[in-house]
Amino acid sequence: MEKISTPLTEMLGIKYPIIMAPMFLVSNADMLIAAINSGITGTVPALNYRTDKEFRAAIQQIRSAADGPIGINLIANKSNVRLKEQLDTCVELKVDYIITSLGSPRKIIEKCKPAGIKVFCDVVDIHYAKKVEELGADAVIAVNKEAGGHAGPTKAAELVPALVNACNIPVISAGGVGNGFQWKEKLDLGAVGISMGSPFIATTEAGVSQDYKQACVDYGSKDIVMTTKLSGTPCTVINTPYMKEIGTKQNWLESILNKNKTLKKFAKMLTFYKGMKMLEKAAFGATYKSVWCAGPSIEYVNSIRPVKEVVDQMVEEFASVGVKNQA
After folding, report:
1. Residue 248's pLDDT is what?
2. Residue 179 lies in a domain
3. C-alpha–C-alpha distance, residues 193 and 180, integer Å
């Protein structure tokens, strides 16, 4: 299929308007290389690397194996004590764009603008979208109700058009896409592209355990639940027997701490740390206590296959229905 031209493909110089979404512990250099070589782009969370040396090596590995835009996801709130170091590295190595999550992107935008690095900001409502637009964001990522990981409260059918009407910068839709037909739907709503993550977990390039990948094949949208136990912020996970046992709500002590003005910041940091450790343990080796993060779009995952096959099928399905809002 020929290039699908939208403001996102023009901005990043890609063939198809798809961003492989940043996924904590899942995204890696091999996945980004495969994404770029398939005509899309990919993003990796800086927090997936324990040290700055490993982070730099990954960026250099991608650059040497693929000719296309590299995206980095930065957690902007105070729980990320390595933000300054990560941002400095992104600017020094001139990554192509940054996706900001969970916090004010002001400092990130101020540092990236002079370096020519694009900044896309996760948003869940008009209020925050207008704020980041005023700060100088290049696009907003509309995180809707069907997103994997930290999802928003609003359906894409409502959120995307609302942001398109309210903002003067491009809107990228995140959540609820597992095939080319749903991809087309998001563009028809006015989005310039999509950010898609969960279907890429079950790929050969993903560095997570086979059990995690197989869970994305075996479970479906009805098995996805929202939990606040991992980061303090609502997050989607697969409702395994272990999740059913521990529940999805914070316990009474966690809840009290998060409501206390003095202790709230420290409680959130502790919850985030504990939750990320739970995910890390489950991502690379299955146990009874496995916690696997994923979104409802795993409904359309039927097998474990290469990234290119996922993209090719998306494009084939998309081509069969066309699109109304090509640029």
Report:
1. 53
2. yes
3. 12
Q: What is the CATH number of the domain that holds 157?
A: 3.20.20.70
Per run of 10 residues, the mean pLDDT along the chain (length 327 residues) is: 90 97 93 98 95 96 96 91 95 97 94 96 96 97 90 93 97 96 96 97 94 93 81 76 67 46 47 49 45 90 97 94 53
- Residue 141 sits at the vertex; the CA angle it makes with 139 and 143, to the nearest 5 degrees, is 165
What pLDDT does 232 receive? 56
Amino acid at 212: Y
3-state SS, residue 118 = strand
Label residue 327 exposed, middle or buried (CB < 10 Å: 0-12, 13-18, 19+). exposed
pTM of the model: 0.85
Other beta carbons within 10 angstroms of residue 216's beta carbon come to 27
Residues 233, 242: Cα–Cα separation, whole Å: 20
3-state SS, residue 263? coil
Task: Please state, in angstroms and rounded to a whole number, the distance separating the CA atoms of residues 206 and 125.
Answer: 31
Query: Cα dist. 19→9, 220, 281 in Å?
Result: 10, 22, 26
User: Does residue 313 share a domain with residue 266?
Assistant: no
The DSSP code for 293 is: B
Task: Please tell me whether residue 203 adopts helix, strand or coil conformation.
Answer: strand
**pLDDT at site 229:** 60
Please report the pLDDT score of residue 282 as a whole number: 44
Tally of residues, the chain: 327
Do 81 and 173 fall into the same domain? yes
Whole domain around residue 225: which residue ranges? 210-296
CB 226 within 8 A of CB 234: yes
